[in-house]
Write a structure and sequence with these properties.
Elements (H helix, E strand, L loop, with lengths): L1 H17 L8 H23 L10 E9 L4 E7 L3 H19 L9 H20 L3 H10 L1 H11 L4 H30 L4 H7 L6 H18 L8 H8 L2 H26 L1 H30 L7 H21 L3 H32 L4 H5 L9 H4 L1 H14 L6 H14 L7 H30 L21 H19 L2 H14 L4
Antiparallel strand pairs: 1-2
Helix pairs in contact: 1-2, 1-4, 2-3, 2-4, 3-4, 3-11, 3-14, 3-20, 4-5, 4-6, 5-7, 6-7, 7-9, 7-10, 8-11, 9-11, 9-12, 10-13, 11-13, 11-14, 12-13, 12-19, 13-14, 13-18, 13-19, 14-17, 14-18, 14-20, 14-21, 17-19, 18-19, 18-20
Length: 516
């Protein structure tokens, strides 16, 4: 287990270094990316296969050696039932993006540059979910910023420069405040070891210190999550990012913020979280409603709503359910948050792949250009490319939380947690928030079904602004099927077999919450 976890972290870093060799240019660089991420996915699967399911709350595959002795900072990594699904999801999405890039590499830079940045991004993402030292967590958390910035700025679409600048500005400012919180926590507790901090459950930290730590670290995590009102960088970044960048941004990077709440703040500062949990829940529910209303505005005929922007706003709403589950401070709610993390990664990753394919075929992701500004026509994807249309409809109904698919269980458990929050939290307040979150699920269904109506339905023989010369549209290609099929399959498996994830996370969550 130890060797597998170290290999999982080292492979993409070594692959990124290999792209500096001039001989590995052109198509060779793209194939190198596929080979390295494929090997990394195989290591992640082997790690999951070797994981001791009888003790998912225990850290496994642990490495703990001195890193910066003067500060008592150690290279400490490990995996438990909370981090294992996120590691596998990250390895899977990175491999699928590398595979997709073989055929759909966007213009803007060299193949070596693209592959090197993708592998460096993978290194930071994987390390974030594996490290067990506060300062090492910060380093891993920050590694992803530079490669994602350049993926957007060099290979992105319209307005990519301002979008990339806003992305890195927001996240750097949030991270600066987060670093202060991490230092405060480590220095006051006398250790930066996350396992030791979790075992203490706040012992030795005053109430005021815990509140300050939660405020500082939580701000940085909230920017990445993204929590309303710190979300405004996200729609621009998604709209401008290339398809692979959008997939990893939504599928993994947003999870780094919510993971930090669970891994760092819940066990280390329980009293501070208890004080601020109602405010976190309120912001989460505002995000759910705000994201849904923004999507309803974008899907209206005549407003030139962009599909990628719509899915970005939908992520604000979906991640609101994750934050609501965390804010309940209950095993049920936190398990729902972790499940929703994985479900959102699978479903939204699939949706961004599909929207990228629609944009490749029509030359636009603008809903009015696809379906007609008058609203009386549709892009007729069912008739022009039935498999692509069917997959888009599948992704939409999975995202709205249809029972039997991965999007259902996380939202349900988060609201169940709000129905009976932790002792000491105001139950009437949480019941109101739960009702408002339930309204958000109805609004989500409204805008996603409107997307299906406007993009998938319609008369294929009738031209639309995006299809004037011929109604023919290429259906799903082989490389697209290879990249999308695992996400579809796992969305169904997670929906029908939720115990696969909940069996891993439940004991680990109870341990983090102090055995409650």
């Amino acid at each position: 287990m130890t060797a597998l976890l170290l290999a999982l972290l080292a492979l993409p870093l070594l692959g990124a270094a290999a792209t500096l060799v001039p001989a590995l240019g052109g198509r060779r660089a793209l194939w190198l990316g596929v080979a390295v991420t494929g090997a990394d996915l195989a290591v992640a699967v082997a790690l999951a296969a070797g994981f001791d399911l009888r003790h998912p709350a225990r850290m496994q595959g642990v490495t703990d050696v001195a890193w910066i002795p003067a500060l008592n900072v150690r290279f400490h990594v490990g995996v438990d039932g909370i981090s294992l699904p996120l590691l596998v999801l990250t390895a899977l999405l990175t491999f699928l993006c590398a595979l997709y890039s073989l055929k759909r590499l966007p213009a803007g830079g060299s193949e070596r540059g693209w592959t090197g940045l993708l592998l460096l991004l993978a290194t930071g993402m994987l390390a974030t979910f594996a490290v067990l030292d506060l300062l090492l967590f910060f380093v891993a958390f920050e590694i992803v910023l530079v490669p994602m910035y350049f993926l957007i700025a060099r290979w992105g679409g319209e307005n990519r420069g301002p979008a990339a600048f806003r992305f890195i500005l927001y996240t750097l400012l949030g991270s600066a405040v987060m670093l202060l919180g991490l230092l405060l926590l480590g220095l006051k507790a006398g250790t930066f070891d996350m396992s030791a901090l979790a075992a203490r459950h706040g012992a030795g930290l005053s109430r005021e210190t815990q509140i300050l730590v939660v405020l500082a670290i939580g701000l940085g995590l909230a920017v990445k999550a993204p929590m309303w009102p710190f979300h405004s960088w996200l729609p621009d970044a998604h709209t401008a990012a290339p398809t692979a960048g959008s997939v990893l941004l939504a599928g993994v990077l947003l999870k780094m913020g919510t993971y930090g709440f669970v891994r760092v703040l819940l066990p280390s500062t329980p009293e501070g979280m208890h004080v601020l949990a109602p405010y976190l829940a309120a912001f989460a529910v505002v995000g759910i409603l705000y994201g849904s209303l923004a999507c309803l505005a974008l899907v209206r005929p005549g407003v030139k709503g962009d599909l990628k922007r719509l899915i970005a706003y939908s992520s604000v709403g979906h991640m609101g359910f994750v934050l609501l589950g965390i804010a309940t401070l209950t095993p049920v709610g936190v398990n729902g948050a972790l499940f929703a993390n994985i479900g959102h990664g699978l479903i939204t990753g699939l949706l961004f792949f599909l929207v990228g394919a629609v944009k490749d075929r029509y030359g636009t992701a603008d809903l009015d250009s696809l379906a007609g500004a008058g609203g009386d026509t549709g892009a007729a994807l069912y008739g022009r490319a039935p498999r692509l249309g069917g997959l888009l409809a599948f992704g939409a109904v999975a995202s709205l939380g249809l029972p039997g698919l991965a999007g259902f269980w996380g939202e349900l458990l988060a609201m169940l947690g709000a129905f009976q929050p932790a002792a000491g939290l105001s139950r009437p307040t949480y019941l109101v928030l739960m009702a408002l979150a339930g309204l958000g699920t109805l609004l989500t269904a409204a805008y996603l079904l409107s997307v299906v109506r406007r993009v998938c339905m319609g008369d294929p023989a009738r031209p639309t602004p995006a299809v004037t010369a011929t109604p023919a549209v290429a259906d799903v290609h082989g490389y697209e099927a290879a990249a999308w099929t695992p996400l579809v399959a796992l969305t169904v498996v997670a929906g029908f077999w939720p115990a696969l994830l909940l069996g891993l996370t439940t004991p680990a969550v109870k341990a983090l919450l102090g055995g409650s």
